[in-house]
Amino acid sequence: MGVEGRQPSMKRDLWRALGYLRPYWWEALGASLSLLLATASNLVTPRLLQILIDRGIKASNLRLIYFMAGGIVVVAALRGVFTFLQGYLAERASQGVAFDLRQQIYTKLQSLSFSYHDQAQTGQLMTRATNDVDIVRMFVGMGFPNLLNIVIVFVGTAALLFAIDWQLALMSLTIVPVALTLILTILRRVMPRFMIIQQKLGHLNTVLQENLAGARVVKAFAREPYEIQRFKAANEDLLRENLYVARVMGFSIPILFTLGGVGTLIVIWAGGLRVIGGRLTLGELVAFNTYLASLTLPLFFLGMILGMMTRAGASARRVFEILDAETEIKEKPDAIELPPLKGRVEFDHVRFRYIGASEDALKDVSFVVEPGETVALLGETGSGKTTIINLIPRFYDVTAGAVRIDGYDVRDVKLHSLRSQIGIVLQETNLFTGTIRENIAFGRPDASMDEIIEAAQAAEAHDFIMSFPDGYETRVGERGVGLSGGQKQRIAIARALLMNPRILILDDYTSSVDVETEARIQRALERLMEGRTSFVIAQRVSTVRRADRILVLDHGRLVAQGTHEELLETSPIYAEIYYLQLGGQQPGRLFALSTPGNGGRRQISRSVRAERFKEVR
Ligand SMILES: Nc1ncnc2c1ncn2[C@@H]1O[C@H](COP(=O)(O)OP(=O)(O)OP(=O)(O)O)[C@@H](O)[C@H]1O
Ligand SMILES: [Mg+2]
């Protein structure tokens, strides 16, 4: 999504992730220093041990023995302090990085347009915002400082080994290049798998999220066994990938331990000969062996951290893919603030195609709506009604032609100044966790209670809201759980009315209310629509008849426009729809007109519509 042209590079992504440490440089520096000091105290211990043996025990110097033993304890305590500081400061820095990344992802998601959300899977996005961020965090907080530390420990230890006996050092260090080659070979094999693991985890979350969001549909269709199977398949996929990586990575541990054993063997054998020959003291041999053993551990760590780094590289890329996604709907740098609107809407030879679609959803649509007019959009399902109204608040950009409001091309104005003057009730109602009052005031959190009640009254929502014990403070759950479909819709209408918009858009706003409620909403709206430009999409001809003008759509084309009376004369399609509903013909014929292949949702809405047509007749 917007990153196709970019050559992925793990190194670049990792550096970029490390760049997020900048605001936390103090913590990061403190952590790195503490780590170095902890390591230094580690390195001192074998030296103290060597002195204790060679000059204390051998020379029977009790004072020196006590002194050195005390020194070892103090060094151990210091090491504890530094280790704590390192862990704490690294956590502060890395948690800060994770916080910033999550915040940036969320902010970015707010700015991405409808077309991005059309294609993105919620589960994948959520995985990127949480799990992937955490993997990057672990690398930034643990992996990177440790990587530095390992290099320093390595060089330091090697230098000490050379200082004790360079020939012995040379012999025993031959294991290092062998170990490194093996680790790198293993990592090269698992590297692509980390990307796949994150992908599979995202898929698992998508299945989970869809299932939870559609829990009611699943139960209604008794599809639980299928859903469990679907989840199991995704879960097994993820398990398989994880186990593969664990298996391959697991090889590195026995390899390293075996090599460590070989190193010890070399030291004991060659070193033992040297002690016998008098070229090395026993203390020196013990110190040498301790250092060599402490070299195996960083090597082992190195394997782990390189693995972590590879994994973080894959996750960082997934995170930056979101952050780098192009926002389709961009404000021009010189976008102008739209003045208070009169409400003239003009479509000028508009052509529009959804991303990935093979056909235009709108084909050369032109019309002008004067301020204050009420326009009804009519056409069978899939004919492009919702698409037309999506272009007015610039949810999508036209493929060709232009949409103008009061003469301003919507692409030339500031998005906020445009959308804040348009009230919209979308086809799919969405409420948020919170109270009814908060949901109505969603677009204007500063609205007074009187204004909220007024909007609710106009939407015919006040009475049912007051019938709840908590009234406007009634809490509704996610997606408005606890309310009926019609109640949710009326709250959505109140939310749009509260914006006091010059342009009001109601998409299928009466789809879940009964005929009587619709008539009541209709009457209330008629007052409110006065002086506003309104677009209504409603399936009932009774609603449509009240409009000043009707636009008739057919397969993305505007095939007729006019008043009810005019259209009856001039538009066969309108006449067909009209007579079909009011003239008592077989409703089956209208549905045969609908474009097929729109899947289950369309099927359902078709049968709902069949019900509604019956009501009208
Ligand atoms: N987000 C989308 N991505 C791709 N194609 C889309 C998208 N939304 C709609 N379409 C397609 O564009 C066409 C017009 O759809 P639109 O939603 O405008 O129809 P509609 O007239 O509002 O139908 P309904 O009465 O069912 O709401 C349809 O063929 C539909 O499949
Ligand atoms: Mg629609």
Question: Which range best describes the helical content: under 10%, 10-25%, 25-40%, 40-55%, 55-70% or over 70%?
Answer: 55-70%
**What is the CATH class name of the largest domain?**
Mainly Alpha
CATH topology of the largest domain: ABC transporter transmembrane region fold
**What ligand species are in this complex?**
adenosine-5'-triphosphate, magnesium ion
Q: Which structural category fits the helices and strands?
A: alpha/beta
- Overall pLDDT level: 84
Number of helices: 23
Q: How many beta strands in the DSSP annotation? A: 12
Question: Rg, please?
Answer: 35 Å
Distance between the termini: 48 Å
Indicate how many domains the architecture comprises: 2
Largest sheet data: 6 strands, mixed
Strand content: 5-15%
Low-confidence stretches: 1-5, 584-617
